[in-house]
Records
---
Amino acid sequence: MGWFGFELFRCLLSGFWNLREMKMTHAAELFALAVPVNHSDHALGPATARVTIVEYGDFECPSCQQAYHGVGILLKHFGSNVRLAFRHFPLREVHPHAELAAEAAEAAGAQGAFWRFHNQLFDNQLHLKAQNLRQYAEQAEIDLRRFDAEMTDHIYLQRVQEHIEGGVRSGVRATPTFFVNGALCDVSFGLDRLRAAVDRAVRA
């Protein structure tokens, strides 16, 4: 290639990454959380936390499962400084069981077992059919008769759809998508960016 060719390639590559960084920064500035965290959200951590993370997730998404473990470590690291709110964004076209899993999580949440059910779904991501969801409800020791009735009537489907609509308005296109104190945080290169954004917000 020669010295000149190598330098040209290096400059082009550097320009590409700088342009991509600019685009990601612009996207983060363009999109903000359209629906503020409120009493209806499933939130883990104190309301007085300096930092609130909102995750739009899909229980059948492999990347969300990876993030589930990473976010757990992050929450332990920052302790009471951070609160996590989880919102549903099932990608129905590629994850056929995700929406029903989200409904089941809401049904469990109505009985005070959202986070236990949330963990069960990610820990058993390959098994999200209706019979599996009922098994997880039984393990969560919630009222199965109520759970069955609410799932049959799709009581919480509207709530899941409201999460999706709010996510779309916030610029969510894929999962997982995170917002830190209302600002979009790009994690396409990994959760290090999320950790850095939380760290800056805690120190601010």
Note: The CA atoms of residues 103 and 155 lie 8 Å apart.
---
Amino acid sequence: MKAARRPEGLGTTAQEYAADMRTLVLAAIAAAALLGAWSARGAAGPPTLRVTYWGNGANAMPTSTWTLRCDPPRGTLARPGTACRRLASGGPKLFAPVPADTACTQIYGGPQKARAVGIVGGRKVWATFTRSDGCQIERWNRLSPWLLPPGGGAP
């Protein structure tokens, strides 16, 4: 039986080969750590959002899409300065879903739907808003009229 060949450029003795393998493993770990730090740092920075709005529900084509970037406030949202101040004070908790065990009134607020995707308070957010019951209407109203339309119109 023939012995397995080592890749060229690696040590010829068992100790040299083991040392070379340790170096490669340490380099791979260091690269993974740097990649992790880089991707975590990508979420930091000023709030940035893309808000998509469906006036007739999610099955229809989106009615509008707005963008927001803070520091300095800008974007296609009607009042970026107000939105940036509210995001700075409320942070990512503004986008928190309604807890599963919450009792909500069965009041239908309309077919409107909105989705906010971006970074707020250094955290990635991906939140969908509807007006399907009392809890969802309250959640919508937390962000209206400065980020979401007030019950259906343009913000």
Note: The two ends are 76 Å apart (CA to CA).
---
Amino acid sequence: MNKKFFFVFLAGIVIFSIVVRLLPHAPNFTPIAALALFAGVYASQVSKWYLFTPLGAMLVSDLFVGFYEPKTMAVVYASFFAIALIGLLARMFVFEAKLQTLGLAAVSGSLLFYLTTNFAVWLFSGMYASTFSGLMLSYTMALPFLKFTLLGDLFYTALFFGTYEFATAFLTKKKGRHKAAFDRVTAFRS
């Protein structure tokens, strides 16, 4: 891994993630979960502190978007940290960024976010009755958001990992190691 390129790429996707959160977008169609997965899979190889990268991006964008109920906000932030841990686990057990592993990790992160944040809304907001049916109503009302969460997480995960793998392969080829680049791209596709 070329460290200079990696840091520039990571800084670029952090800035991109912040900007996308500030621009008009479909509900929950943001790159923060993809950034968390990227931090878990790649950035954690440099330092485990990079697992906090998505939280920093959230905090900076929340300075502009606005803060909300602190307990619910803490659950949202914790869910993104958990998604970074999903990325770390994927790397530890699969050892490379395979397409099906990243897809499963993105869907798992989306479902984790949906379940934890809507549980927090039910528990802390007072919008729903403190009963099991109130919890189920909270989950039911959030289904349209789940659709956009899944689509956004899959799209941005493909964008971040695909761009990184392509750029890494290109830089490797440029240095005269064509076979290594080809193997890297082929491993990503399988």
Note: The two ends are 21 Å apart (CA to CA).
